C-alpha cells in the first residue's frame, strides 16, 4: 500500500513539471492584466497563435508549480476550441501558465516577445 501512495505522489509531482496547451482558437494581450472584453486589448493574429502553439509545444517540460500572486508585465489569454481559457503571464525571467511557471533564458524571453511584437518568421518562412 505504501508503494502505491508513493508512486501516486511521484506521478503527481512529475505531471506538474509539464504544461500542455490545448489547441488555441483565439487570443488577446496587453500590458498588465487583460480580459476578453478589456477595451484596449490587442487581438492576436492567426500567425501569432500558430507561433505560440509551436513555442508551447516545444517547451512542455521544465515547468514548476507554485501558488503566488504574480504581477503581470504582459498578460495573454488564449481561448481554446473547447471553450476553456488559459491565462499566460510574461515576465522578464519567467512565463506563468496558471499556477505553473518556467524560468526563461534571455533567448526564450526574446522569442516570446518577438511573437507578441509579430517580429518573427515561422519555420516555413525561413529560407534555407
Give the overall pLDDT as a whole number: 81
Number of strands: 7
User: What is the helix tally?
Assistant: 3
What's the helical proportion of residues? Answer: 25-40%
Total number of distinct structural domains: 1
Would you tell me the structural class of the helices and strands? Answer: alpha+beta
Report strand %: 25-35%
**What separation lies between the terminal Cα atoms?**
57 Å
Q: What spatial order of strands do you see in the largest sheet? A: 2-1-4-5-6-7-3
| Largest β sheet strand count, sense and barrel closure | 7 strands, antiparallel
Q: Describe the global form.
A: globular
Unreliable stretches covering 5 or more consecutive residues: 6-15
Radius of gyration: 16 Å
How would you spell out the order of helices and strands? HEEHEEEEEH
